[in-house]
Amino acid sequence: MPMTPTWVVVIPFLVLSVWAALKGLKMIVYTSIILLPLVWILGHFVAFTTIESKRYSFLFPIFADEQASIIQGVLIILGGSVDLLVLFLLHHYFNKPVTVTTINYGNSRERSWY
Predict the structure, then answer these.
(1) Residue 93 and residue 112: Cα distance in Å, rounded?
(2) Are 35 and 24 in contact (CB under 8 A)?
(3) Helix (H, G, I), strand (E, B) or coil at 36
(4) So what's the pLDDT on residue 43?
């Protein structure tokens, strides 16, 4: 796997992402419903099976480098919540309030906010 060209990994994910975007938000939601539990289970599997080889001494001292490295880490961690921030900032422009029921589980003519 280390010798695999980057394009071999990128192209399938790019095609999947474009296909899901063209299908709409409903397809993205269904895909995440399938993939999230799978990623969660595999992540816990890796965490528990590699518990003997982890060196927790590398975590301390926290301030060994600079505060800039801590800020970079915080930005990386908070980067996963940007979608919630964008949704919060754009909710004034939606016709209906954004709730679980407005994600269009019904008729395709009744598009809610996508």
Answers:
(1) 12
(2) no
(3) helix
(4) 93
Query: What's the pLDDT tens digit per position in 36-47?
Result: 899 999 999 999
Q: What is the rounded CA–CA span in Å between residue 106 and residue 81?
A: 28
Cβ partners under 8 Å of residue 102, min gap 6: 94, 96, 112, 113
pTM score of the predicted model = 0.44
**pLDDT tens digits, one per residue of 74-113:** 888 888 778 777 777 877 777 766 665 655 554 445 454 5
Cα separation, 84 vs 42, in Å, equals 25
Say if CB 63 and CB 73 are below 8 A apart: no
| Cβ(26)–Cβ(104) below 8 Å | yes
Here the tokens at position 90 are 């754009």
